[in-house]
Specification:
This protein has about 475 residues and is mostly helical. It has 15 helices and 4 strands.
Length: about 475
């Protein structure tokens, strides 16, 4: 019973984290544009320009919060919720002197929820011919009231909360305690909370610091590829079987492509490696704090290329030193556990671990159910029109998996669409869902999908078995 409860808590935490990141992820391009403008045109930038630098505050204080609120409202109540979120957040922005990214992440979904409840209340009660009038005036009037609420209450509250958080961060930095966040960040990433941690928590705080200091170390807390790179190098040198053979490709995808999810299965296969990623993350953050490094905007994905692009002027070499130190520490610690595990036979080979996992999944699915819609049945190739590779955010690892699978079945005689999406936003018409085994419970089983659980989008027996159905 406690195991089921823990599983539900984990799923709820992942769902909440995904919701936070889903508000920010669609707008990462906006953050990058703001980062480029900041790095180039502020007085300490590469090409100082007072006129062009005036865009920095406009983007950070007005456009970015509005876009986040729009995305948050849309997640809750579609286009009406999106408009409501933008209107309500205008009050939050006007009621504060600091960038209201946190305020937007609260006000956007709240406004969407309010209009959704209103629509439910008046459903089937609007006289024929007055639908458009009610729809437009409801957004206008309720949006105005929420904007007033944001100006008088939510904005000042978030300002105070943000001040407390920033003082807390400044205290940790001043006391050299910021590296301790790695104790929570690194395990959180393995639970697929990496996007939520980075974009839901660190990005808002980092944006405020950039507005004041021109850069922020907060953008480097989760994005540093060093800890994961150390794990993959340890498996490449000391691993055996598929875990060793798949490590070189994973290193390229992780370090250059920025898809950190690629190394999660290696840690899950040997949980002692959590010590390695925590140690690597701790040393990487400590180095950045000592050297005073920072980025001008979020690096997404967490590729060394993106990190170097967003690095503050003069910090490039320092950041590379921090990444190198994180890699070396993670590698040294991981090497001990990897060598010991294989020498004593306490760690399964990569393929065997995935096979046992798939077997346990099948056993759990074989339990009787009164609802036939939730039964998973292997679908024949001619009955499959759309295959969806789904990960937490629907961008990094799932996009990679979908692209690889399309190449595998490119000569297939069957007409099948292969796409990628967030595990919580499966598109219409999907027949087969391929997703990480940790995310299976977040899929709506009543939709009749065939669900393929995997451990690695790059190399997995279950993906290979699926591909066989579509080959000549």
């Amino acid at each position: 019973m406690s195991e089921k409860k823990n599983k539900n808590v984990k799923n709820n935490v992942q769902r909440f984290g995904r919701f936070l990141s889903a508000m920010v992820m669609p707008n990462i391009g906006m953050f990058i544009a703001w980062g480029f403008i900041t790095a180039l045109f502020i007085p300490s930038g590469y090409l100082p320009n007072e006129n062009l630098a005036s865009m920095v505050d406009v983007l950070l204080k007005y456009l970015i919060p509005t876009l986040i609120a729009y995305s948050g409202g849309k997640l809750v109540a579609g286009e009406r919720g999106a408009v409501m979120g933008a209107i309500a957040t205008a009050g939050v922005i006007a009621g504060s002197e600091i960038p209201m990214l946190l305020g937007a992440m609260i006000m956007g979904p709240f406004a969407g929820w309010v209009i959704k409840q209103f629509d439910k209340l008046v459903q089937d009660k609007i006289p024929t011919g007055f639908e458009m009038l009610v729809n437009n005036f409801s957004i206008g009037i309720i949006g105005m009231l929420l904007a007033i609420l944001g100006y008088n209450a939510i904005g000042p509250f978030i300002s105070g909360l943000t001040t407390v958080l920033e003082h807390g961060v400044d205290f940790l930095i001043g006391k050299k305690l910021l590296p301790l966040v790695s104790i929570f960040v690194e395990p959180g990433k393995i639970l697929f909370l990496n996007n939520a941690i980075n974009h839901g928590i660190f990005t808002p705080i980092g944006a405020n610091q950039v507005a004041e200091a021109g850069k922020s170390v907060m953008y480097l807390l989760e994005a540093n590829p060093g800890p994961g790179l150390g794990i993959l190098l340890a498996y490449f040198i000391f691993g055996k079987g598929d875990s060793k053979n798949s490590a070189p490709g994973a290193i390229i995808i992780h370090f250059l492509g920025g898809i950190h999810e690629i190394y999660f299965p290696y840690v899950l296969m040997n949980p002692y490696l959590l010590i390695a990623v925590i140690a690597g993350g701790f040393c990487g953050v400590l180095t950045n704090v000592i050297l005073g490094t920072g980025l001008v905007s979020a690096a997404s994905p967490g590729s060394i290329i993106a990190i170097m692009t967003m690095a503050a002027p003069g910090d490039h070499v320092k950041i590379l030193i921090a990444v190198a130190i994180a890699t070396v520490v993670s590698f040294l610690v991981a090497s001990v556990f990897v060598k010991r595990a294989y020498s004593k036979g306490t760690t399964q080979d990569f393929n065997k671990a995935k096979e046992d996992l798939a077997k346990s999944k099948e056993e759990s699915k074989s339990k009787p159910s009164d609802n036939k819609e939730t039964q998973e049945v292997e679908k024949s190739a001619q009955n499959v029109k759309k295959i969806v590779f789904a990960c937490d955010a629907g961008m990094g690892s799932s996009a990679m998996g979908a692209s690889r699978f399309r190449n595998i079945i490119k000569d297939s005689p069957y007409d099948v669409e292969v796409t990628h999406a967030s595990v919580s936003e499966i598109p219409e018409g999907a027949d087969v869902i391929v997703t990480n085994e940790n995310l299976v419970d977040r899929i709506d089983k009543s939709k009749g999908y065939e669900i393929i659980p995997i451990k690695n989008f790059l190399s997995d027996k279950n993906i290979d078995e699926l591909a066989k159905r579509f080959k000549k």
